[in-house]
Every structure is written in C-alpha cells, then in structure tokens.
Amino acid sequence: MEKYLVDSHIHVTMLPYEGLQAMAEGGIKKVITCSIVLAAQHAESYFDYFRLITGFYRKNAASLGIQLYSAIGVHPAGIPHDWTRVVNALPDFLKTDGVVGLGEVGMNQGSQLEQDVLKAQLEIARDHRVPIIVHIPFENRLPITDLTLSIAGQVGIPPHLLVIDHANLDIIEQINQFGAIPAITVRSRNVTPEVLSDNIDRFAHGMLNSDFSNLFPNDPTGVIKAFHRLKNLGIDQEIIDNLTRKRAESVFQI
Ligand SMILES: [Zn+2]
C-alpha cells in the first residue's frame, strides 16, 4: 500500500490554498482540522464555523485528494458568553459526517472560566467516547499541564481518548505517565525536526501535526519535513509510521 502521511491538527480556515497544495504534494492524504473562533462572542459563531469546516472546506480539500476531518469545540482564544449553548450542541454536531472528536480545547491562563469550559468538554468526550485534543499554551506550560491532567483525572476520561497537544521535552514525561497521547507540533516555536529526531525515544508514543494558523510563523509542511528527516536518519520505520500516520488513524478512527 502506498505510504501517505496524516497531519493531526491544523486550522483549515487560516490555511492558504497553496498550503493545502503543498501538503497534498508532500504526501499528506488525511488532515484533522481543529475548531477556533478567535474572540468569539456568540455561540452562533461556533455553529457557523462547524458547518464551514465540515462542509465547504471538506469538499475543497477533497478536490486536492485530501480527506479533511474535523474536531469541534470551544477554543480558549474565543469563549463566547453563552458557551454552554455550544457545549450542549456538541453531541449533535458529533453526528456530522467527518467529525472525529473534540478540539481544540484547553486553557491559556487557567482561569475559573477556562477550567469550567474545559471540564464540560472533557465530560462530553468521556460520555460520547470520542477523542479530545487539549492544547498546552506557550506560557505557564507546567502549571497548565498539571491543572489540565488533574481536571482530566477528576472527569475520569479514559487516557486513550485524551490527546495533549503541543507536547515538548518539558511536559512529555507527564503526558506519558498519565497515559494520554502526546501530539507534537512541528515548527520553530515548538518541536523542530531536529529536536524530534534527537529525542525520538521520548516522542515515539506521539503523533505529529503542523497546527497551521496565521497567528505566528507556521509551516504547513512541518509533518512532511519531519518525516523525511526521520527517514534519512534511518529511524525505525514502525516509529515513523506511528508518528506520521498510524497513531492518528487509530485514535481518531480515520
Ligand atoms: Zn491549534
């Protein structure tokens, strides 16, 4: 079977067409787009967004040979005042074709509001047995990781459904100990292909993504570059396959 790659976390509405093209040309055939509505004020902003990524953008990606799957949820960078309406609607949106889980959720500061929104969404993931992508921010990484895992423990979400994203050397042991799945973002501000290959044993249980957005420097071909570096270095093929395809396929059942 022909080898292909999976990018387990992007933000498709921020991706230029050329970025999607570069992904397709580099061998990516499946992509998971996460929800984010920056500065959202109203639940409806999320409802329209969910329809946009599961409809319009899914068709557009298919025209380039990419199967686009969606993760839905309230992102900490845009918590509407009526966020409970979004959370209550998630089970219905989970039935939409191509929706494979919840995300991107998580905390930036760890405020009570952020904790409440995260907890409510972890409960939905637990009750509906779907994976949930929880991000760890650039700042306050250790306390936010502690708090995230403690809330996840209270909720009692099965660890194999918990994807902790933007894992790096600072938190990888915590994630592995909890039994959650580390997601590894390949870009200059997170894990470079060099740091990945230098620490391959510690990252081997994870899955790669580019987390492409337009908020700071990003590279839609991060997963592709990492794949070629690992291959050129002669890293074990099974580890490469898991990081760049198989783990995402099994966690999200895609
Ligand atoms: Zn993201």
UniProtKB/TrEMBL annotation:
Pfam families: TatD_DNase. Coiled coil: none annotated. It comes from the Bacteria. GO terms for molecular function: hydrolase activity, acting on ester bonds. This is TatD DNase family protein.
